[in-house]
Structure formats: C-alpha cells, structure tokens
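## Example record

The block below lists the input lines for one assembly entry, exactly as stored, with component labels intact.
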Amino acid sequence: AQSVTQLGSHVSVSEGALVLLRCNYSSSVPPYLFWYVQYPNQGLQLLLKYTSAATLVKGINGFEAEFKKSETSFHLTKPSAHMSDAAEYFCAVTEGSGTYKYIFGTGTRLKVLA
Amino acid sequence: GAGVSQSPRYKVAKRGQDVALRCDPISGHVSLFWYQQALGQGPEFLTYFQNEAQLDKSGLPSDRFFAERPEGSVSTLKIQRTQQEDSAVYLCASSLALASGGNYNEQFFGPGTRLTVL
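Predicted structure tokens for the full assembly:
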C-alpha cells in the first residue's frame, strides 16, 4: 500500500533562510508525487508535481523538489523564505497513470520568523 | 475562470441531524473527488466520480455517507444521522480527466466545507 511520511509537523525558519520540508513515500509502483500548499480557510493549491519526467521539479513561488528513488524522498525546498510562505504544506502520492486516489501526508506547518 | 466552489463553507449540526454538502466543479471537468480532512491531518479520499458514475466509494467511512452526481456536474455529499466523529473539513476536487497520453491531469481543490457536529 502507498503511504507518505512528512517529518516535522511544524517547521520554523527565519525570513530569507532556506526552507526544507521533508517527504518520504512508499509505493510498489512508480509514483506520481505532489506538493500542495494550504492557506487558512482556503483549499489546496498545487505547488509542483513529479510525473516521471525530470527528477528536479520547479514549481510556483520559487519552490522546487527533487525526486530521489534510492531514498524514496521528494523533499520541498526554497532558497529564501518569505513571510507569505507561512502556510501548511502537504505531500501526496498516487500510483500514476490511470489512477486517481491521492494519499496525503499529515502536513507540515511552516512558520516564517521576521 | 471560476474554480471549484463548495457550499456552505461552514455547517454546524446537532448530533443526529442530516447534512448535505454541495460541490460545483470546474466546468467541463469529468472527474470529481471528495476528501475528508480531520483536524491536524491530511485529506483522506472518500469517493470518486467519472461524469455521473460513482466508480469508487471505498473511502466512505460508513453507510451514513452518501454521494451523488446525477447529471455529471454538481455533486452532493450527504451525511445522515451525523456523529461527532464526522466533524471535519470536507474537500471537493475536480480534474479534466484521468491521466492520458502520459499527461497527468491535476486535481483542483475547492475551499472546503467545515462541518462541526455538536
């Protein structure tokens, strides 16, 4: 069965510092992987996705993630945090072409300190 | 264009009441999904429609939960005899279609309905 583990339910970084949010997955077949952001009282917004093309994926708002099969990881990074990045971030996996269920991690709440 | 909309945004129900939650997907989107997000958790899959056909309802937690999409557009999630454990945010998502030609069609999420059962 597929699963997603997000290490660290809360992460705090200073404004301008590197953001690193961790995601490890488990899947018996090649996965599709996603990062979503959720602002308070809003729906989930797609940041980026990995669908078996380039392993380094660039998304919106300066975020990127690298798919590492050997480490079963898909960590999210941003070189320099902005105050507006404060939100909850969810990693999700699905089995890929022809499937549809997203399996989400429990989320990481990012706090950006001035 | 308009995104996925859900109504009501907030619903308070007394235990035992029936509730109906509405989802308006993006026009032309074939696939529609319902997820349940408990406090402090990630969303969990409930059910999936392709047009009007409910192809997967394996995530519905009990027979008190019922979803429909009779004309392949608007969907309603109904919860009968609500219980306190039903308190959660219910998210609806739609996508143009399933993956085809190697292209994955992302799911677009609505803002959710926050259900509180007292």
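DSSP finds no helices and twelve strands in chain A. The first strand of chain A starts at residue 3 and ends at 5.
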